[in-house]
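Sample intake — Metallo-beta-lactamase domain-containing protein
Collected from: Caldibacillus thermoamylovorans
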Amino acid sequence: MLKKVTENIEFAVVTYSGGMGATNCYLLKGEDGYTVIDTGMYSKKAIRLWEEILETGYKIEKVVLTHVHQDHIGLAKWFQQEKGVPIVVANLSYGEIKKYRRPNFNERFKKLVMSHGVPFVPDRLPDTRFIYEFEPDAFFDEGDHIQLGMDMYEVIWTPGHAYDHYCFYNREKKIMILGDHVLKQVSPVIGLWVGEEMDLLKYYFDSLKKLDAYPTNIALPGHGEMIYDLQGRVEEIQNSHQKRLQQVYQSVETNPKTALEVCLDVYGLLSLEKMVSPFMASLTRLIYLEKNKEIERIEENNVFKFKAVKK
């Protein structure tokens, strides 16, 4: 049920269908109980897992969120309202929470993806607003120091995978809590999940560079295995992005294409369920290249296409 990382850090793997399939939720032991980092996706199965953990005697002092994607914030409302556990988020995360609560959220997301070539989006997308309908108890910002378990951690703003993404670093023990900023097995998807266009890939590259200032012995990711060579893994991810950016550029070098058409060029034909993340990755790479003036955007019948700029 729980696996040990260090003497005072354990983690539970909360599994679910779809997406990454599992989230690492960390429990950091403190004098007055445990700090939980991220909660996993909302599901009855996840609630049963946390109930079992609590029944074994674990006292949860507070929940702290790295960012507010569904698979990390999913049970925060449950912890707060059913168990009386305070929820701590970044001020930026509170702004994102409000966006996810909006009644027109699904329409805004649908409009975005259809403007980039997706021909059909179900009229009734899953309504996940309920997991965001609570008020956090406390807030943090970049540069703050926050008590997590026994130790103090520096708060580092690392936008990219999410605009409100944060990592936490303990300088004495050289431990980095990564959230989804860097993963060992896969490259984190950089996607416009709130339905608003921005150059998140530029943010992501800048955030990866920030990690140079934080020598790390062990990094705790939100999914998959622990990372013991963080800088090596960062270099692998950077190289992978550069190769994909070259593929995206080559895809629009001759003819204008939508983000969906570029996705099909780069990743091939995938099932609808497996297409979402590659589509988002293709779109954010196109926006990055557009901001760098390597490609430009044209609009045809309310649909955007991208083409390489002649040099």
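Post-analysis note: The chain has one domain: 3-240.
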